[in-house]
Specification:
The protein has helices at residues 2-7, 21-31, 50-60, 75-86, 91-99; strands at 14-18, 38-42, 67-70, 106-111, 117-123. The chain has one domain (2-122): 3-Layer(aba) Sandwich (Rossmann fold), CATH 3.40.50.1240. The chain has five helices and five strands; from the N terminus they run αβαβαβααββ. The strands form two sheets. A three-stranded parallel β-sheet has the order 2-1-3, covered by helices on one side. 38% of the residues lie in helices and 21% in strands. It is of the alpha/beta class.
Length: 129
């Protein structure tokens, strides 16, 4: 997924990573494709609910132009669904995110000055058949 994001031109300048072993290992893999970001290990991301995730992201990202969060479900899925609803996103995106948000799934949002989210994309890892 890191290579896919890099190929799309995604370059986070700030990455928030849960302190859990699995998320730190995930970031280590992603970092090869997405270097040069400031990384903050945040215990509060561990199993956080959507509202907590959003609050932590908003507080940390005041100066970041592109932020990435490496955390856990169901919180990330719930946050993705909320942002899709708030942004009046295409029904297909909403249905897909409600149905499943597997490990390594990525949702990309652009936020305007008022904090409103507009979906840029919803990407799921390719699985071997």
């Amino acid at each position: 997924m890191g290579e896919r994001l890099a190929a799309m031109g995604v370059r986070p300048d700030l990455v928030l990573v849960s302190t859990a072993l699995r998320t730190r290992e995930t970031w280590e893999i992603l970092e090869a494709a997405l270097p040069d970001a400031e990384v903050r290990l945040m215990p509060g991301l561990y199993n956080a609910e959507a509202a907590t995730l959003r609050r932590l992201v908003e507080a940390a990202g005041e100066t970041a132009k592109v932020m990435m969060v490496v955390a856990h479900n169901p919180g990330l899925q719930e946050l993705t669904v909320r942002l899709l609803r708030e942004g009046e996103s295409p029904a297909a995106y909403l249905a897909r995110a409600q149905r499943a948000f597997p490990p390594a799934a990525v949702s990309i949002f652009d936020f305007d000055a008022a904090g409103r989210a507009a979906v840029e994309g919803l990407f799921y890892p390719e699985r071997d058949a």
